[in-house]
Write a structure and sequence with these properties.
This protein has helices spanning 2-21, 36-40, 72-78, 183-206; strands at residues 27-32, 54-58, 62-66, 82-85, 97-107, 112-118, 121-125, 128-133, 140-145, 151-161, 167-171. It is of the alpha+beta class and 207 residues long. It has a seven-stranded antiparallel beta sheet with strand order 4-2-1-5-10-7-8. It has a four-stranded antiparallel beta sheet with strand order 3-11-6-9.
């Protein structure tokens, strides 16, 4: 019986370790509506300090586009976002919205970033402004280089949509991620541990 309890403890630790390692780093996004000034000049200082109207998560690459419908929902759906709060606002217009994306990246000094955007945005990595293009624009490509220290850094991407369709934000960021096991991995682990535990229990009963 003592060995069986030990096996259960080992199983619990193993599952906890897998669960911890499975926390893939995603991008957290927040949206505020009816923000004329911030949408026209997308910088961190213009991000409202109030509760966001919509929150969501997404993964790399960030790839959002809204055209015909020009709604928040169309924009988020195009990039595969997972809406956390504010689902009732998804039918609202993109006009004069400000977005704040945050997460963690693994970067190298001299690394180049290219973003296609309409309208403006600011990208800050490790406290260093890498892309400074906050004003309204038609869809265009902006390229900039990161000259900060190499390693894992937090980032803040502020994007504004101010002036009618389309709404475009497309950028690839080197997110720090860890592999997420498939459900079958958990099943195999539990089955194996159960078999070992069963064998240990039978051996104890025979002795």
């Amino acid at each position: 019986m003592r060995h069986f309890k030990q096996m259960l403890q080992v199983a619990a630790v193993a599952i906890a370790m897998i669960t911890t390692s499975a926390q893939a780093n995603t991008v957290t996004g927040s949206i505020w509506e009816n923000q004329f000034t911030a949408a026209n000049w997308a910088i961190p200082a213009n991000v409202p300090g109030t509760t966001p109207d919509v929150t969501f998560t997404t993964v790399d690459p960030i790839n959002f586009l809204s055209g015909g419908l020009y709604t928040i929902g169309e924009f988020l759906t195009s990039g595969g976002a997972n809406v956390l709060t504010g689902a009732s606002d998804l039918g609202n217009t993109m006009l004069n919205t400000i977005f704040d994306f945050t997460g963690t990246v693994s970067v190298t000094n001299g690394e180049t970033f290219t973003v296609r955007h309409d309208d403006g945005l600011t990208l800050v990595i490790g406290g260093i402004t890498v892309i400074d293009a906050p004003g309204p624009t038609s869809p265009e490509l902006t390229t900039a280089t990161y000259f900060g220290p190499s390693g894992t850094q937090s980032f803040d991407l502020v994007y504004g949509e101010c002036c009618g369709p389309p709404a475009v934000l497309q950028i690839s960021l080197p997110l720090t991620t860890s592999p997420v096991p498939e459900p079958s991995t958990y099943a195999m682990l539990l089955a194996g541990l159960g078999l070992v535990g069963f064998s240990a229990r039978r051996r104890n009963e025979n002795t």
